[in-house]
Amino acid sequence: MIDDSLLSQLKGIGMSEYEAKVYVILSALRVASAREIHEQTKIPRGRIYETLGTLTRKGFIVSSGKSPVRYSPVDATQTFERLKRESVTSLAGLFRRLKTLETETPEPLMQGYKLYTDWTRDNQIRMMLKRAKSEIILLCNDEEFLRKYGDDIARAAKRVVVYLVIGRKELAESAPVKCYMGGSDIEASLFCPEGGENNGLLLKLVVVADRGESLSILEENGRLMGIFICPDMYAGYLSRKFVQEIQPVERSHKGARKGKLPGTGKPKLCPEIYRLNS
Description:
Layout: H1 4-12, H2 17-29, E1 32-33, H3 34-41, H4 45-57, E2 61-64, E3 70-73, H5 76-104, E4 112-115, H6 118-131, E5 135-140, H7 143-148, H8 150-157, E6 161-166, E7 179-181, H9 184-191, H10 196-199, E8 201-209, E9 213-220, E10 223-229, H11 235-245, E11 247-248, H12 253-258
Parallel strand pairs: 5-6, 6-7
Antiparallel strand pairs: 1-3, 2-3, 4-10, 5-8, 7-11, 8-9, 9-10
């Protein structure tokens, strides 16, 4: 009488083995006493009353009469419509709780992006120079980059504080803004890193904007690669470290007044950017 597949389905909605057997028998008999259910299911008599009480609390069956008490199933349509409503409500609540956990999960402290093409690197550098709101720090050891982004750097210097830190003093003669040179830490770790010649990795340019994002251009075995980090959790510390260590570079009077950006034929723009922090 008892279909094993039916028992499995009932257990799938949360019934125990005994609950499923009792419910199937009652659904077939329509009404029966605890003794009659025991005889049909062979469930131990002591467990029959426990099982009937559980099914009653769950709303699957009802009891009536006395001596003996008889049990019958609640209308199946009514029961399973209720189960569907409860299931939908439960799943909706679970979904909301999981979504809450999802939104409470903190964003990664830093996101790094590799910039493989010239177009991508070029546009990211120009966008950083354009969107900066308070400060830009550039570390450059390559005259080509100074020439390429000279106009962008000069325009940025009219809006925000710009610190252009160079690796070689002679680069100041072709720079678009006032230049600085770093202390021993900057020189050793960035412009002359230990083992740099051995691993083929050379720093060409670093841009740090508003102490919150950074972009580094590296040359590795003759190929350029960019790394853009936003937000950069170390940018604030590094920016303060750079500003503390750097010293202004004195350019020759001739170079400061009449020099031109190499390859452009344009006069250099040399706005003073020694401003107080604003």
